[in-house]
C-alpha cells in the first residue's frame, strides 16, 4: 500500500479484490466495500494515510473525485 501511494499519489480499491491489504479483514468486518487511500505527506515522505471508506460501492470513483481527494 505504501509503495503504491508513493508512486501513484492515491489508491482506490474494491475491498473484495484487496486480499493483500493489511486493512482488508477489518474493512470487511465493518461492511466496507470500497476504499480510497490518500497519503499524508511531509515533504516527500508519507507520514500517514487518510482512508475514505464506502459501503455498497464497488465501482471506481470518477477522475474529478480523485483529483479532489489529492
Break the fold down into its secondary structure elements and pairings:
Blueprint: H1 2-8, E1 11-14, H2 24-29, E2 34-42, E3 45-54, H3 63-69
Overview of the structural elements:
With 70 residues, this protein is an alpha+beta fold. It has three helices and three strands; from the N terminus they run H-E-H-E-E-H. Helices cover 29% and strands 33% of the residues. Strands 1-2-3 form a three-stranded antiparallel sheet. It is globular. The model has no long low-confidence stretch (mean pLDDT 87).
Summary keywords:
70 residues; alpha+beta; three-stranded antiparallel sheet; 3 strands; 29% helix; globular
Strand order of the largest sheet: 1-2-3
Mean pLDDT, all residues: 87
Indicate the radius of gyration in whole angstroms.
Answer: 12 Å
* First-last Cα distance: 16 Å
The number of helical elements comes to 3
Number of strands: 3
Strand fraction band? 25-35%
- Low-pLDDT windows of residues: none
* Biggest sheet descriptor: 3 strands, antiparallel
Helical/strand content category:
alpha+beta
SSE string, helix = H, strand = E? Answer: HEHEEH
Helical residues, percent: 25-40%
Short recap of the structure:
The chain has about 70 residues and is an alpha+beta fold. The chain has helices at about 1-10, 25-30, 65-70, and strands spanning about 10-15, 35-40, 45-55.
Amino acid at each position: 500500500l505504501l509503495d503504491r501511494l508513493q508512486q501513484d499519489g492515491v489508491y482506490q480499491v474494491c475491498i473484495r479484490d484487496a486480499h493483500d491489504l493489511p486493512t482488508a479483514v477489518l474493512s470487511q468486518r465493518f461492511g466496507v466495500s470500497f476504499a480510497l487511500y490518500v497519503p499524508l505527506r511531509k515533504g516527500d515522505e508519507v507520514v500517514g494515510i487518510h482512508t475514505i471508506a464506502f459501503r455498497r460501492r464497488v465501482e471506481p470513483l470518477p477522475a474529478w473525485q480523485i483529483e479532489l481527494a489529492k
